[in-house]
Specification:
By secondary structure, this protein is mainly alpha-helical. The chain has one helix at about 1-105. It starts with a helix and ends with a helix. The relative contact order is 0.03.
């Protein structure tokens, strides 16, 4: 009877040892999987960041190009208006001055 109890204890000890080995092996595998998962997340994050940075830079360049084009049009229109005002001033300066003088002296 004592021998059977010793055999049972020995078997239980082997089972316990095997269980610990299995748990330890599983923990190591889980740690390796977690590291691989973390590596993939970091790679995805970097890829996404690079893609978004590139797209944002492209959008920024498009906006700047549109802005520059509109600014050039406004500058051209402004220069044209200034030139027209300058020509009008040169042409009609004396007549307008005389008209203002006459209006002031009539009052």
């Amino acid at each position: 009877m004592e021998l059977q109890v010793d055999n049972i204890i020995t078997e239980l000890s082997k089972i316990d040892s095997s269980s610990k080995d299995i748990i330890e092996s599983s923990n190591k595998e889980m740690e390796a999987c977690n590291k691989e998962h973390q590596k993939r997340i970091e790679e995805f994050d970097k890829s996404l960041k690079d893609k978004l940075t590139s797209e944002l830079e492209e959008i920024k360049n498009d906006i700047n190009k549109t802005y520059d084009e509109k600014l050039a049009v406004l500058e051209k229109e402004t220069d044209k208006q200034i030139q027209q005002l300058d020509e009008d001033y040169k042409k009609n300066h004396d007549a307008k001055l005389e008209m203002m003088f006459n209006n002031l002296t009539k009052a």
